[in-house]
């Protein structure tokens, strides 16, 4: 496995791989890797001759300075995990390497970016589009792998790819969970022991809502989930929306879509946790 810090150096390595007819897969990450990331890497290794993993904490997608500063950075440990997983190249650039000058591009990502995370994290999706498009231009992957925990982000990346007409296939991979159901996230390490004990309630409540969805209205399912979680003293639901899984637009009736997905964001203390479930 080769660790590369410079864009030009990575381009040269990958040009040589491409000349040999090899398919290239990319897993974009912000590091602090866990089993969820590694499931993406495993799939990338299985489906491509060359697996590239980027490890870069992207400042343009953080609208909370504290969140950026406290985001865990564990490159050495990440590289050990990636080598064991069969990754060929780790791209670990500096902020200066990725942004030699400010990226002023404004993406108009349309309705998929205007709901849920969009208004609550102004500029976040624009920052995601900036960094992911840069990575696609550098790596030129055949396929890129994203986890479904960030469900809305996948829709945003697909829209960005469509607008820029990039020849990359976006592969969505299932959420990976702890044994107690909590969706794997780099943020989980920031939970106190008490919060960590309570956090699986998010996934359990979503699971319980599946049976309810067969006989109750969308509004009643939303109320059940929010009430159950807000009753827990360490939790506060920021939003729970049931949306069309293609358009991300909220639905009021189950008949409106053949792909209903419940997307939730919960504050567990100060830690913002997200999860989703397909109905």
What does the model show?
The structure is a single chain. This protein has 279 residues and is an alpha/beta fold. It folds into two domains: 2-173, Rossmann fold; 186-278, Pantoate--beta-alanine Ligase, Chain: A,domain 2. 41% of the residues lie in helices and 20% in strands. The protein contains eleven helices and nine strands. It has helices spanning 7-19, 35-47, 65-70, 75-85, 95-98, 117-120, 124-139, 151-164, 193-198, 201-213, 218-230; strands at 2-4, 24-29, 50-55, 89-91, 143-147, 169-173, 235-244, 260-268, 271-278. It has a six-stranded parallel β-sheet, with helices on both faces. The chain has a three-stranded antiparallel β-sheet with strand order 7-8-9, covered by helices on one side. Strand 8 and strand 9 (271-278) form a beta hairpin. Helix 7 (124-139) packs across helix 8 (151-164) and helix 10 runs antiparallel to helix 11 (218-230). The longest helix is centred in the middle third of the chain and has 16 residues, at 124-139. The chain starts with a strand and ends with a strand.
């Amino acid at each position: 496995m080769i660790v590369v810090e410079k864009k030009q150096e990575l381009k040269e390595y990958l040009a040589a791989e491409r000349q040999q007819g090899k398919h290239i897969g990319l897993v974009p990450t912000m590091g602090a890797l866990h089993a969820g990331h590694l499931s993406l890497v495993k799939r990338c290794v299985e489906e491509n001759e060359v697996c590239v993993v980027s490890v870069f904490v992207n400042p343009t997608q953080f609208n909370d300075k504290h969140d950026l500063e406290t985001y865990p950075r564990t490159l050495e440990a990440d590289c050990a995990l990636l080598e064991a997983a069969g990754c060929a190249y780790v791209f670990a650039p500096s902020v200066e390497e990725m942004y030699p000058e400010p990226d002023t591009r404004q993406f108009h990502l349309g309705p998929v970016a205007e709901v849920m995370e969009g208004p609550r994290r102004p500029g976040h999706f624009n920052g995601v589009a900036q960094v992911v498009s840069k990575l696609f231009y550098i790596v030129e992957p055949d396929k890129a792998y994203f986890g479904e925990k960030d469900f809305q982000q996948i829709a945003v990346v697909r829209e960005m790819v469509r607008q820029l007409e990039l020849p990359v296939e976006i592969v969505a991979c299932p959420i990976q969970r702890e044994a107690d159901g909590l969706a794997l996230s780099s943020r989980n390490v920031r939970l106190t022991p008490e919060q960590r004990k309570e956090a699986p309630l998010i996934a359990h409540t979503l699971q319980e809502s599946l049976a309810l969805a067969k006989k109750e209205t969308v509004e009643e399912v939303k109320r059940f989930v929010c009430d159950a979680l807000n009753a827990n003293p360490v939790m506060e639901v920021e939003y729970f929306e049931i949306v069309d899984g293609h358009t991300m637009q909220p639905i009021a009736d189950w008949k409106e879509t053949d792909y209903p997905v419940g997307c939730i964001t919960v504050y567990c203390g100060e830690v913002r946790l997200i999860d989703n479930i397909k109905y």
